[in-house]
Design brief:
This protein has two domains: about 1-125 and about 305-370, NAD(P)-binding Rossmann-like Domain (Rossmann fold, 3-Layer(aba) Sandwich), CATH 3.40.50.720; about 130-300, 3-Layer(aba) Sandwich (Rossmann fold), CATH 3.40.50.720. A hairpin with a 2-residue loop joins strand 14 and strand 15. Helices cover about 35% and strands about 15% of the residues. About 50% of the residues are buried. The strands form two sheets. It has an eight-stranded mixed β-sheet, with helices on both faces. Strands 9-8-7-10-11-13-12 form a seven-stranded mixed β-sheet, sandwiched between helices. It has about 375 residues and is α/β, with parallel strands linked by helices. It binds nicotinamide-adenine-dinucleotide. Nicotinamide-adenine-dinucleotide binds near residues 137, 176, 179, 249 and 271. Nicotinamide-adenine-dinucleotide binds near residues 118, 179, 239, 269 and 270.
């Protein structure tokens, strides 16, 4: 199979989808890899390293899309890439289609097989391709919030961990999955007082012992969430309903009752955001203030730790890329359930139920779409 790695086009996105060591493995397995010149530069990987691994270096995205059977990316294609799709393309990337009706239309019109990292799901419900980026984003959230609490950035001038005689900051995390738990561990390591609120009791049962009791837990009803937010210095939105738009767990009224100059980091912004007052921001202009509260909502947070993030992402995606390349799309869908669950669009149909519901489009079973 011919596998294409274009340079990422989303604002301030420095990651690359596959690192040279994975290209080397794909080339040794008999596949051809076409890499856009400069694709790895932001993550500190040079064209020469890709060439040494057996890749063909192509100039410009057209040369990559035109020649490739499967395009492996990091973030969802941007509008300037829609015209590069063609029928038969496999697009393997983070897609986050629920808040992206235009991208969905483009994938359907060009009959692209869109396989979303975030909905590739193991038998036990685990999301193996979302996991590494959620770990990175979770770890980054308290680090970013700590900086935003500084006076010169308009923050309340509080140290996250406090000092002897001064209370530590309070961090409230809504959603205790991968993002939430990693954010909690990092905030706790920095000395903050941390509470995770979730609606999944099993998850809360895990959090307490896994943190040796250092992280408090709460069942996420609107009342408990409001009570926690009123005392919080930092709130992290980390909820997920796979494939669907993020539930708005923090309402505008709740934001209005938060402390002045407190910080919201809405990590769930890539699924539309979990805060009523949120809108997407970028690494260039990461924050805005609403009701006196600083809002941060960058949809590609790991993009600023591109070297670490590219290595950990491709460690996770590589086995799936290899399966798709070895088996071909149809056989991979038929024999690999996690990959089948990742298919959001196929041959002009929306094949993921939650995505179809979020966009109010017709859902067609994957088997039916395959047979069509
Ligand atoms: N902004 C970024 O750069 C970035 C990077 C990685 C992940 N993310 C996003 O972060 C979000 C969380 O990802 P994850 O991997 O931690 O997901 P996850 O599935 O591991 O965890 C989500 C948690 O949210 C909980 N939840 C669902 N609905 C809830 C509700 N109404 N109230 C409280 N809790 C609720 C679930 O029970 C679960 O424990 C996703 O939207 C993901 O795409 C963003």
């Amino acid at each position: 199979m011919i596998i294409g790695i274009p340079k990422e086009t989303k604002a301030d996105e420095n990651r690359v989808s596959l690192t040279p060591d994975k290209v080397d493995l794909l080339a040794k397995a008999g596949h051809t890899v076409v890499v856009e010149s400069g694709a790895g530069a932001g993550a500190d990987f040079k064209d020469a390293e890709y060439e040494a691994a057996g890749a063909i270096i192509a100039l410009g995205p057209e040369a990559v899309f035109d020649r490739s059977d499967m395009i492996v990316k990091v973030k969802e294609p941007q509008i300037q890439e829609y015209g590069l799709f063609r029928p038969g393309h496999i697009l393997f990337t983070f897609l986050h289609l629920a808040p992206e009706p235009d991208l969905t239309s483009a994938l359907l019109a060009s009959r692209v097989a869109g396989i979303a990292y975030e909905t590739v799901e193991e038998e036990n419900g685990g999301l193996p391709l979302l996991y590494p980026m959620s770990e990175r984003a979770g770890m980054l959230a308290p680090q970013i919030a700590t900086t935003l609490m500084q006076n010169q950035l308009g923050g309340p001038g509080r140290l996250i961990g406090g000092v002897p005689g001064v209370e530590p900051s309070r961090v409230v995390i809504i959603g205790g999955g991968t993002v939430g738990f990693n954010a909690a561990l990092m905030a706790n390591a920095l000395g903050a007082n941390v509470t995770i609120a979730d609606i999944n009791l099993d998850r809360l049962r895990y959090v307490s012992p896994a943190s040796s009791g250092a992280i408090d837990t709460a069942f996420a009803t609107p009342q408990t969430v409001l009570g926690l937010l009123q005392r919080a210095d930092i709130a992290v939105g980390a909820v997920l309903v796979p494939g669907a738009k993020a539930p708005r767990v923090i309402t505008s009224e709740m934001v209005q009752q938060m402390r002045a100059r407190s910080i919201i980091i809405d990590v769930a912004i890539d699924q539309g955001g979990s805060v009523e007052t949120i809108r997407p921001t970028s690494h260039h202009e990461p924050t805005f203030v609403m009701h006196g509260v600083t809002h941060y909502a960058v949809p590609n947070m790991p993009g600023i730790v591109a070297n670490t993030a590219s290595i950990s992402l491709s460690n996770a995606t590589y086995p799936y890329v290899l399966k798709l390349a070895n088996l071909g799309l149809h056989k991979a869908i038929q024999t690999e359930r996690p990959i089948a669950r990742g298919v959001n669009t196929l041959d002009g149909y929306v094949t993921h139920k939650a995505v179809a519901e979020a966009l109010r489009l017709e859902h067609v079973d994957l088997e039916e779409a395959l047979a069509a």
